Amino acid sequence: MKQTGKIGIHAFVFILLTILTQIGGVVYLMSFVFSKRIKLTFPLKGLAAFVIIYCLGTFVTTPLVAKLFNRQRIEHRHNLKPANYLTVLMNRNYVSSELNSYLLDVSKKLAESNDQVIMRYLDAGFPLLPGFPLLPHLSHNDGKKVDFSLVYENAKGEIVNSSKSVSGYGVFEGPKKGELNQHKACQTAGFSYYDLPKYLTLGSINGELHFSEKGTKDLMDALTQHPAVDKVFLEPHLKERLRLKNKKIRFQGCHSVRHDDHIHLQVK
Ligand SMILES: [Zn+2]
Predict the structure, then answer these.
(1) How far apart are CA 88 and CA 67, in angstroms?
(2) What separation in Å is there between the alpha carbon of 264 and the centre of ligand 1?
């Protein structure tokens, strides 16, 4: 019984690490083998082995192997960065070479139109095995998709490149009075999980920041004017509020989750 319990815990950790980081589960197994081979005994030997192998895997081996699947890490620029560095540490920053080229083009374009806004990306895709979903985003499985944070400003109206939650998800810029309330419509139609991202915040932060209409509009314009873009998901009331006319900006449907906490983008 005791042995079964141990195996159950290891299986749970393996699955959790795989879901979160893709390579973490395999690294977990490898760390057992390596720590057994090291004759030296010291506290937290297993954890040390895990951290060393994980870092080597994340920063050395995986980027090389990912090339076999046409996956690259998002190339950073002064105005193209992760909203949270955990995205990089967890290998959730991989895209196809085509999406990487698109992002570099867009970041240059955005720097010309608004040099205050940083494109702060959230979840993109995993490095290995096409079709491997990046939960909780079922569609982020082909290197063609990436999410972005909305843009915020302080009370003086200055752009502040920060998020309103630790994860970058789940703090909504909901509809104002008189705006289309898609959230309510979806909930009424029985799609109770439409606002599921509210459970994914990992804590709300920067409560003093406000939604920046100009900053988000400039970002949306830069994202949608490029010919490689296929679709961008943004909640209808924000599309209306920002007076965005581009037909590539769409409502994702009630079967998905709401997009007034982040922007979803996919290329052709
Ligand atoms: Zn997405």
Answers:
(1) 17
(2) 4
Residues 82 and 212 in one domain: yes
Cα 193 to averaged position of ligand 1 atoms, centre (Å): 16
Phi, psi of 247 (to 5 degrees): -70, -15
Domain encompassing residue 203:
73-267
Residues 98 and 195 in one domain: yes
Distance between CA atoms of residues 117 and 177, nearest Å: 28
- What's the number of CA atoms in the CB half-sphere (13 Å) around residue 43? 0
pLDDT tens-place string over residues 137-184? 888 999 999 999 999 999 999 999 999 999 999 999 999 998 888 888
Q: How far is the CA of 58 from the centre of ligand 1 (A)?
A: 22
Positive or negative CA dihedral for 77, 80, 85, 89? Answer: negative
Tens-place pLDDT, residues 107-127: 999 999 999 999 999 999 999
Is the same domain home to 198 and 110?
A: yes
